[in-house]
Structure formats: structure tokens, C-alpha cells
Amino acid sequence: MSAEETVEDAVRAAFTAGRRLRFDPRTPKRDRTVRGELLSALLTEGARGAALRLVGANVVGSFALEGTQVEHVVDFLDCTFERPPDLRMARLVGLRMRGCKVPGLWGRNLRVGSDLVLEAGFTSDGVVDLTDASVDGTFRLAGAVLRGGGGDHALLAARIRLSGSLQAIALRAGGEVRLRGANVGGNVHLGGARLLNAGQNALDATGVTIAGTLFCDAEGGRFTAEGRILLDGARVGGSVVFSGARLHASVVDRPVLVIPRGTADEAAALVADRMRVEGNVELDDGFTSSGTVRLPNADIGGYLRLSGAVIGRREVVDELADHTGEVVQRIPVALHADGIQVQGDLEARGVVNGGIHGDGERDAALRAYGQVRLVDAHVRGSASLSGVELHGPGIDVLFADRLRVGGTLFLRDLRAQGSLRLQNAEIGSTLDCSGASLLSPRRRPDGTVKPSLDARVATVGKDFLCSHGFTAAGGVRIRLAEVGKMATFAGARLGGPGSDIALNAYGLTVSQLVLRLSEDRTPVGRVLLTRVAATTVLDGPGLWAATGGVDVEDFTFRSISSTPHVDVRTRLRWLREVQPDFAPGPYEQLAAVYRDGGEEELAQLVQLEKQHRRYSELGVAGRVWGFLQRWTVGYGYRPWLAIAWLAAFWLAGSGWFLGHEMPKLNEDESPSWNAWLLSMDLLIPIVDLGQDGKWKFSGASQWISSTLIAVGWILASTAAAGAARVLKRP
Fold first, then answer.
1. Per the UniProt record, which residue ranges are transmembrane (predicted)?
2. For residue 37, what is the enclosing H or E element?
3. Closest Cα partner for 252 from 264, 262, 240?
């Protein structure tokens, strides 16, 4: 009897008895070789209670069960197959192939009534094809090695249905792992897996449905993918966990137009468009991706966590830095999350106060190399980007138009090389940019820079905080924004080289506006406060020393103060410095504030300065008329000046006429000489006291009388003009 016959007899006996047959791996291969045809025949015709359990066997020939229903357990351990097992359309009670080595596995439409076990060193040098397979249990691939045989695919499991979990911890795959349209009743465990398919898809789980959680984390080693991960359209009942994962992809999608003069370059490493997750999405704790992470229109039922992640390619951003000062046309994208819905919080800060403590450490904040896109995103909770590093010099490194945040948007101590764009954003509570540093803003074609922070038409429910060392090299634009309580720029550094506008607050509506800037924090560029409506304003000397001036047309407020206190003359000097051309509005506003505060004298000083500036910009006649009004009646705000001048000229005239009695003009009349009444009659127009026209003036007395008459008319006219102006005053 040959060795082969002896082995096959032993296999038959063990199969019939349902016991395990173990071959010593040290024995020659011929002493443990069994034909695949024999095994197929046994499984097809075996009696009830039989089971195929082989350890260390060498299976040659064809092990084919295509279309066969097998009622026996099939359990291979450390066996070697010469040809790929053919299990297409087969129905098996259970299949275990732990530690086996196969040149491939054909299992399309396979049905397994319990667990499918291809783990513990299972190695395939060809594709494992389980397309449309069904497993009424758990699919185990932990520690398996799928080489793909030099093809594009290592595992084909599209539309596979698992009633249990997919256990693939520490899986090694050299080719695409395809789970497109799969339905998994439990969790998917890929922790520690290494999926290598450079330049193509490493994992294609498009449209997958997972009742539990998807784990692609550091359990069992760090999950690593060389190639793209596709999760677009996935439905996950639990969470999606990529904590500590490392992704690298070189697949470049077709560039997408994102701004009028630019396109987005996306070498996507993780594609999760339209993904729906009932739990959390965790891309944190050392998660790194050299390509774009795509989450557009994803729906996350819990929170999105990015703390400790590093996303994007540093070398691409370094190229941007080498072209500083130029307009960037192709924009690298790190995170693309347009239209994402997050029911909980978005967390990207470091664990310890949002601090940055190194590359990929657990307590580090997100670091992104390229643009972070959150256009039309909606975060129902708070969004914390405190301490985050965003690298994208010359581009909108945060593009978040129409972003909606139900709670607070934290940007504390954020470090950005590039601009932050939050146009039409809606923040339910506070927008906190305290301590943020925004450098290398985006540039226009003419070489000027765009705002480092652009929050035009934004709505902030509570406070807008840009203080405690906040720096915006390109300035801040909050044009037509609405802030519920306070907007503060105390101690901020606004503007820099190339910035024409340091702060554009045109049309801002706010309760308290804090512009307390010291002289060493002078804004570089213009400050636009045109049509700002505030209840309270706190300012400082640095604001009014802005290098481009301060526009205050229609700037309205109810109170204004400064620390330390600033007197009215200083404020008037500030207005003169920032308004080379006279405009009455700012003076009227300041006077109204003083008047409403019960400081009428200060209000008059403001009105006097307003009239002085008004007449000083007229022609010669206007300036003369203004000079007369200023020194005679104080433009109508100091009527006692007219009385004083009248008294002075009356006394002077009376003194002259006391020593120079004039002869009667008409000998037929007998008027009584009275120097005091004569002087008064000459000074006061229209009123007749019986002295004027009764005496014949000559010599010096004639000039003095004429002077008194002229002075009287001038004082009367200026007093009337001033009185009319005062009566018109609101």
C-alpha cells in the first residue's frame, strides 16, 4: 500500500469518526498529502455525525464544493493547498481554515451557517473572493495575510452579509480589501491591520452597513493603510474609530473649483462622503493622514473628534511658503467636510488646555497642512479648535462659510498660516479667538492681502472675543455682523504689511464694543467703524492712531469711555486727526452722548469744535463770519459772550461821551444829554431810547458812534444766528 493510500485511509477513518487528524509537519510532505477530490467526495457523501478536521495536511488537486450543500463541519488547521479551494455557491455548516496557506479562495455566493474562520496566520497568495457570500456568524480574519497574488485585489467581499462581526485585527493585505455594499450585523474590527495598495484603493467599503462600530484603531498595533479608504455612503449604527490610524494615499481626484480664482487639489486618503454614523467619529490620538480626509455631507449622531490628528502633506504646504506673496491658484485640502452634520461637539483641541505637545501625541491639538473646509457645516453642540495648527500660507486655511454652531466656537490660541473665512456663519453662543495668531493671509491679484479673519454678515449670539494677544496680520472683517453682547479687540494686533484695512466693522451691530488698544498696538491700516451701532464703546489711544485713519461716519453709541480716563479735549483731538475732512455726524454723536449723560458743558465744547471746523473749511468770508461768531456768541452756545461784549462797548462808549458832550442836532428840540443812554441807544439796533439822532457827532466822536452802531448790529446778527442754531438742536 502506497503512502498516499495510507494517508487517505486515515483521513476516511478520521472523517467518519468526526475526530481530528493531525500530521506532523516535520514528516515528508508525501506522508501528509491528501487529494482534494477525496475531501470533496467525503463531504458530499459522508454520513451524519462525520466531520472533516485536518491539521498540517498537504492538499493537492482540486478541493471543489461548488454548488454543494455540506452538512459536516470543515476544519483545517495549518494545512497547505495546491489549488484555490472552490466553494462557489456552496452551503456549509461551518468553515475554519486557521493558519492555512492557499493560492487563493473562490467563494462567491458561499453560505456558511456559523462562523467563517480565516485567521491565525491564514495566508493567501491570490485573491480571496467572497462576493455576495453570507455568514450566519462572525467572519474571522485576525492575523490573516492576503497577498493578492500581484493583482489589484486581496479580498473581494462586496455585498457580503454577516449576522455577526468582522474580526480582522492585525490583518495584512497586499491589494484592495473590497467590502462594498457589505452588511455586518455586529462590529468591524480592523485595529492593527496593514492594508497596502499604493496609488489605488486600500479599503473599499462604499455603501457598507454596519450595525455596530467600525474600529480602525491602534488595537493590536497601529492601523495602517497605503492607499485610499472608501466609506462613502456607509451606514454605521455605532461609532467610527480611527484613533491612532496612519493613512497614506497618492490618488489625486479631479480638481474642483472652490473659489473664483482657484481649484482644490485633493489626494484623498479617507473618503466618507454622505456617511451616516449614529455614534461618534474619532480621528484622534495620533491619527495621521498624508492625504485629504473627506467628510462632505456626512451625518454624525455623536461628536467628531480630531484631537491629536495630523492631516495633510507638509511638503505641499512648504511649497506654498516658498511662494509667499504670490496668489495661490491650486489649494491643497486637508479636511473636506462641507455640509457635515454633527449632532454633538466637534473636538479638535488638545486634551490639556488645547496645548500643542508634539507630533501625534494623545494630548496634542489637530495639525492640518492644507485647507480645512466646513462650508454649510452644522455642529449642534460646540466646536473647539483651541490650540489647533492650520498651515496654508496664502490661502483660506479655514473655509467655513455658512457654518452653524449651536454652542461656542473656540479658536483660542489657534495658530494659522493663512486666512480664516467665516462669512455668514451662525454661532449660537460665543466666537472665542482669544490669543489666536493669524499670519500669512491670502492675497489678492494686486498684491494686497485679504483679511486674516473674515466674518462678514456673521451672527454671534453672545460674545466675539479677539483679545489676549490676538494677532491678525491681514486684519479682521466683521462687516454687517451681528453680535448679541460684546465684541472685544482689547490688546489685539490688527493689520500688517500689505493690509489696507486693519478692522472693517462696517454696519456692525453690538451691545458693547471694546477697542481698548494701547499706543504700542496701533492698527496697521484703516479702521472702518462706519454705521456701527453699539450701546457702549470702550476705546484707547492706539485705535485713533491707526496708520490708515479711522472712519466714523454714522458711528452711533450711547456711551463711550476709556481706561485710563480721557477728557473731551483729547477726544476732539483724536477726531481732528482721523478726519482731515469735516463731517458733522461724529461731533453730533459725541455731543449727544455727553448731553444724555448730564454733561452739558462737555457737549457744548464738542459743538463749539464742530462749528469751528465747519467754518475753518469755508472761504475767506465764511472764515471771517465764523471767527466773529466764535468770539462773540460762541456759535450761539455761549450767549453770555454777546452780553459781555455789549457791556464792554457800552462802558467804553459811555466813558468817551461823558467827557465829550455833543451839540444838539436840532435847535428846535431840547433833549437831555445822557452819555449812558446814548451809548446804549447806539449799540442796540431798532430799539429807540431817545438819544440816537438827537446829537451832532463830529471828529472822533463820529467814528466812535459809528463803531458802536456797527458792533451792535454784528452782535445782534451773530446772537440771532446762534440762537436759531441752538433752537434747531435736537
1. 640-659, 671-691, 703-727
2. helix 36-45
3. 264
Q: What is the pLDDT of residue 358?
A: 40
Tell the burial category of 619 from Cβ atoms under 10 Å away from its Cβ (0-12, 13-18, 19+): exposed
Per-residue CA distances from 472 to 389, 477, 494, 512, 523 (Å): 15, 10, 5, 21, 10
pLDDT, averaged in runs of 10, over the chain (730 residues): 70 86 84 88 81 91 91 92 94 93 94 92 93 95 86 90 94 93 95 91 95 90 92 96 90 49 68 96 93 95 94 81 60 93 93 43 78 96 94 92 96 94 96 95 83 96 94 95 96 90 96 91 93 94 91 90 83 77 72 75 68 62 57 55 66 71 67 69 64 67 73 65 52
Query: Distance (Å, rounded) from C-alpha 58 to C-alpha 78?
Result: 9
Distance (Å, whole) CA 285 – CA 245: 9
Residue type, 716: A
- CA-nearest of 205, 242, 196, 200 to 222 is 242
The helix/strand/coil state of 60 is strand
| Residues linked to residue 559 through DSSP beta bridges, in sequence order | 536
Q: For residue 630, give the C-alpha cell.
A: 466764535
Residue 32 to residue 26: CA distance in whole angstroms: 10
Which region holds residue 311: left if phi is over 0, alpha if psi is between -120 and 50, else beta? beta
CA distances, 604 to each of 569, 572, 598 (Å)? 12, 12, 12
Element (H, E) at 622: helix 620-632
Contacts of 717 (CB under 8 A, 6+ apart): none
- Res 159: pLDDT: 95
3-state DSSP assignment of residue 34: strand
- pLDDT for 376 equals 96
Joined together, the cell numbers standing for residue 211 give: 450595525
Phi-psi region of 470 (alpha: psi -120 to 50; beta: other; left: phi over 0): beta
Amino acid 257: pLDDT: 47
pTM of the predicted structure, to 2 decimals: 0.82
| Predicted local confidence at residue 651, as pLDDT | 76
**Can you give the C-alpha Rg of the chain in angstroms?**
44
688: number of Cβ within 10 Å: 9
Q: Label residues 376-388 b or e (16+ Cβ within 10 Å = b).
A: bbbbbbbbbbbbb
For residue 375, what is the DSSP state?
T
Helix, strand, coil % (nearest 5) of the chain?
A: 20, 30, 45
Q: Find all residues with CB under 8 Å of 320, minimum gap 6, and list them.
A: 328, 332, 392, 393, 394, 395
Residues 289, 295, 298, CA angle at the centre, nearest 5°? 150
The grid coordinates listed for 203 are 479599503
- Classify strands 281-282 and 240-241 as parallel, antiparallel or unpaired: parallel
Cβ proximity of 88 and 66 under 8 Å? yes
The backbone torsions φ and ψ at residue 322, rounded to the nearest 5 degrees and listed phi first, read: -70, -20
Listed by start position, the domains of the chain span 314-324+331-347+361-527, 633-728
Single-letter code of the amino acid located at 150: G
179 closest CA partner among 146, 217, 220: 146
Q: Which phi and psi (to 5°) does residue 379 adopt?
A: -115, 115
Question: CB under 8 Å to 559, separation ≥6 — which residues?
Answer: 535, 536, 537, 593, 597
Task: Indicate the burial class of 323 (C-beta count within 10 angstroms; 0-12, 13-18, 19 or more).
Answer: exposed
Nearest to 504 by CA among 482, 486, 527, 524: 527
730 burial type by CB count under 10 A (0-12 exposed, 13-18 middle, 19+ buried): exposed
Distance CA 373, CA 308 (A): 18
Query: Taking a C-beta distance cutoff of 8 angstroms, is the pair 535, 561 a contact?
Result: no
Pick from 175, 172, 183, 174: which is nearest to 205 by CA?
A: 183
Residues counted in the chain = 730
The Cα 264–Cα 284 span in angstroms is: 24
CA distances from residue 567 to 597, 605, 606, 636, 638 in whole angstroms, order as listed: 14, 11, 11, 23, 21
